[in-house]
Amino acid sequence: MIQLNKNQDNVDTELPHVIIAEDDPISLKMYTRMLEKRYRVSGCSDGAELVATIAKDPADLVLVDNEMPNMNGIQTIDVLRRSERFWNLPIIVISSHDEEEEIIQTLEYGADDYIIKPVRQSELTAKATIAMRHRKAQTIESYLRRGAVFNGKYRIDSQLGEGGSSRVFLAKSLVDEKHWVALKVFDELRKNSEYDQMRTFLREAYEHSLLKHPNIVELFDFGQIGHAPYLVMEYFPGVSLSDLVDQHGMLPQEQIVQVFEILVDVIVFLEDSQLIHRDIKPSNILVGRNNEVKLLDFGLARKIGEQTITDEEFFRGTPQFASPEQIMGDEKLSQKSDIYSLGATLYSVATDKNPFLGDNPMDILKNHLMSEIVPAIEIRPTLHLGLNALIQACMSKEPERRPNPDTIKKVLHNLDLWESLL
Questions:
Q1: Does the bond joining 118 to the residue before it have cis omega, within 30 degrees of 0?
Q2: Across the chain, what does the average pLDDT equal?
């Protein structure tokens, strides 16, 4: 039964709800007495019972004993922090252990505070008040500062980059051998279309998580904190092709051939997985210190032959590298669309210019549909005729005129034979 108190105007006000998980009945009764004048208190004998209770009756604060059977304090915190419902739920751990290592580990898993037994009423009530006050004031930004623990599992180290609707952070995993990960956090979803947006995000993240290939950045985890979706990916300390070109100008032809042989294999793998990437471009291709190559950002990936998720969706992609059929929203989008984007990317890194320019994104999209590119060899006269011809072929307006992956690889292996192959 909900306990009520009376304020000075004699109006009923619901008390904040505190759930205590403690396997010792005497301690549970003592903590309840300490808090019951200020809070509505529910008691549980272990973490599993607490999780079941909070699913039915949400709490404003959770107190967890660290040494419970079935599900101890850290395990309980881990379960709660994995749920989008409880990302900012105040959690205080009570323990008889005062070892620094255990306290740090508990806080790293997402506890807000740690109280060492024997518990004093003044300390318990003060820390309960502060924990609830702090959580009410916190936003997603509170979990993206250096040293903050995101979702109870990832400690933020630094920001790696920022895009139009997301930021990427370097973080250390606290629950999986403490390896480094790249945490990508998106802007909060718009309230009026949150369901459709989250459905699309989860679907695309799930498809990415199934992909296991040495040249694709692996996705370990995904979810939502508050209204902000996030991805946890393999951290690959590479440099994007776009940054390489910005730093050094046009890429050497030998490097272009090497990178694009690898990417053709990735496109074949994606087709075998019934996927189209839909956003192949220089900034989504990373090159490592030993010339390893990784393709990332599967936020626009789509099943081959599958219709778009929402009726209102027309174009999703990057205007400078999108195929004509992608721009037109063709429901029969195929592997040839990624080959067009590969050709546009090849043009960009070979010439240090995008294939089409325009005063605005719409002008660029129209040029993909109606204009012919300036041959790359006119911008870079030393470009091999074979590479120039390959770019032209990959960027054909009609998908059926673009070369298949086997043909592209044959040209890349022997550029002098391009006339007989294309």
A1: yes
A2: 87
pTM, rounded to two decimals: 0.70
pLDDT surpasses 80 at 203:
no
Q: Provide the pLDDT for residue 196.
A: 58
The pLDDT score that the predictor gives to residue 6 is 41
Residue 266 to residue 286: CA distance in whole angstroms: 13
CB neighbours of 192 closer than 8 A, spacing ≥ 6?
none
pLDDT bin (cut points 50, 70, 90) of residue 225 is confident
Indicate the fold that domain 239-421 takes in CATH.
Transferase(Phosphotransferase); domain 1 (1.10.510)
Which residues on neighbouring strands pair with residue 184, listed in sequence order? 168, 231
Query: Residue 309: helix, strand or coil by DSSP?
Result: coil
Q: Count CB neighbours of 209 within 10 A.
A: 16
Token pair of 419 as six digits: 């006339």
Which residue type sits at 321?
F
| 329 Ramachandran zone, left/alpha/beta (phi>0; psi -120 to 50) | left
Residue 279 is among the residues annotated as catalytic for this protein: yes
d(CA 39, CA 349): 63
CATH superfamily for domain 4-138: Response regulator (3.40.50.2300)
Tell me how far apart the alpha carbons of residues 366 and 358 are, in angstroms, rounded to a whole number. 9
What architecture does CATH give domain 149-234? 2-Layer Sandwich (3.30)
Q: Return d(Cα 383, Cα 298) in angstroms, integer.
A: 31
pLDDT level of residue 193 (50, 70, 90 thresholds): low
The one catalytic residue among 46, 65, 113, 279: 279
Confidence of residue 140 (pLDDT cuts 50, 70, 90): confident
| Distance (Å) of CA 138 to CA 90, 110, 132, 141, 143 | 11, 14, 10, 8, 9
Average pLDDT over residues 17-43: 94
